[in-house]
From TrEMBL:
Keywords: Membrane, Transmembrane, Transmembrane helix. This is PepSY domain-containing protein. The chain crosses the membrane at residues 62-79. The keyword Transmembrane applies. Residues 19-41 have a biased composition (Basic and acidic residues). Residues 1-59 are annotated as: Disordered.
């Protein structure tokens, strides 16, 4: 039994529900004239079949596909190893240290102090950065309140004024309180904790302002941007350290 609902045919199930009564549509068999017309264009001319495409050897196409996929896989692996968990690109490796040299020596520090006294009339500083005996940066106290703190650079032979900055909350101290032997010892301690290829090391000396500050900060950099950092007091007693495995820890 079937019913009509909104123009559609439905049959009634045994439980009383209606189900659509689907029927196959009927098509008539095409005549010879219909087939002839389908093979001609609107002007009545026969339709020419398209030319077959140029065929390639399956083997050649397969080899090309393997080469492309292989190159893509290698590139993906290299890219994956060069990226961090967030897709950040790895920085270029740092140059490896050619040979170890003590980070500073007494003769160099004495020479820098003499040149600083000649340039400023004193050896008071706010901060000192040492990247080696031929790369030292010093910030001196402002000449007057409201002035900028002048910065000087030592290249191993000449002390020159390079720039100026706001003094901030930095406190002045005499350069001669810095003991080169203490800096060398801290630097060597940090190097002994490194398990990578060392690139270089640097030290910063700044008088503490609060109990949470440190006098000395030494950082040893590795080629892959890992490294070891050590904080110590002015006598070289360690107050903290931190190890970076690679650039992802920065």
């Amino acid at each position: 039994m079937s019913d009509r609902v909104r123009g559609k045919a439905y049959r009634r199930k045994a439980n009383g529900e209606l189900a659509e009564d689907r029927q196959w549509q009927r098509y008539r068999r095409p005549s010879a004239d219909d087939v002839t017309r389908e093979n001609r264009d609107t002007s009545g001319q026969p339709i020419e079949p398209p030319a077959p495409p140029n065929r390639r050897r399956p083997g050649g196409r397969w080899l090309v596909g393997v080469a492309v996929i292989g190159a893509g896989a290698v590139g993906f692996l290299l890219l994956s190893e060069a990226e961090g968990p967030d897709g950040e690109r790895a920085p270029d490796p740092l140059p490896a240290e050619e040979r170890y040299r003590p980070i500073i020596d007494q003769a160099t520090l004495d020479e820098v102090a003499a040149e600083l006294r000649r340039a400023t009339g004193a050896t008071a500083v706010l901060e000192v950065w040492i990247d080696g005996s031929d790369a030292i940066r010093l910030t001196v106290p402002p000449a007057a309140d409201g002035d900028l703190a002048e910065e000087y650079g030592w290249d191993g032979a000449v002390l020159e004024k390079t720039s100026a900055s706001q003094p901030g909350d930095r406190v002045s101290f005499p350069l001669d309180v810095v003991d080169p032997d203490v800096l060398v010892e801290i630097d060597e301690q940090a190097r002994s904790r490194s398990d990578g290829t060392i690139s270089d090391s640097r030290a910063r000396i700044r008088k503490p302002v609060t109990e949470y500050d440190e006098w000395i900060y030494v950082k040893v950099d590795e080629v892959d941007h890992g490294g070891v950092a050590v904080w110590a007091d002015i006598d070289g007693q360690p107050e903290g350290d931190l190890v970076h495995e690679d650039w992802r820890d920065d």
